Amino acid sequence: MTTIPMSEASSRLDDLVDQLAPGEEIELTRGNDTVARLVKNGSQKQTRRFGLGKGKLTIVADDDEHLEHFQDYMP
């Protein structure tokens, strides 16, 4: 997170907002106190759809060897 004094931010506000990446924050201070935070709104929301991960994971049903390490945690 970047910290900028209010006096500097007021003259460069347009540039500061344009340089922000989605989710990135700039903390605005007055003296030693934080007075505000600028956070760029992520306008490109990713939508999740069913089936996008199909075929990316293979589960082998007869593979019990890896469970040996978890015997203490199983009933």
Q: What is Rg?
A: 24 Å
Number of discrete helical segments: 1
**CATH secondary-structure class of the domain at 1-41:** Alpha Beta
The residue ranges in which pLDDT falls below 50 over 5 or more consecutive positions are none
The percentage helix is: 10-25%
- Briefly note the CATH topology name of the domain at 1-41: YefM-like fold
Tell me the strand order in the biggest sheet.
1-2-3
Structural class, from secondary structure content? Answer: alpha+beta
Q: Give the biggest beta sheet.
A: 3 strands, mixed
What's the architecture of the domain at 1-41, going by CATH? 3-Layer(aba) Sandwich
Averaged pLDDT, please?
83
Strand runs, count: 3
Order of helices and strands: EHEE
Quick one: CATH superfamily of the domain at 1-41? Answer: YefM-like domain
Span between termini: 46 Å
Strand content: 15-25%
Global outline: elongated
Word description of this protein:
There is one protein chain. The protein is an alpha+beta fold and 75 residues long. The chain has a domain at 1-41: YefM-like domain (YefM-like fold). 19% of the residues lie in helices and 23% in strands. It has 1 helix and 3 strands. It has a 3-stranded mixed β-sheet, covered by helices on one side. It is elongated and about 65 Å long.
Q: How would you describe this structure in keywords?
A:
single chain; 75 residues; alpha+beta; YefM-like fold; three-stranded mixed beta sheet
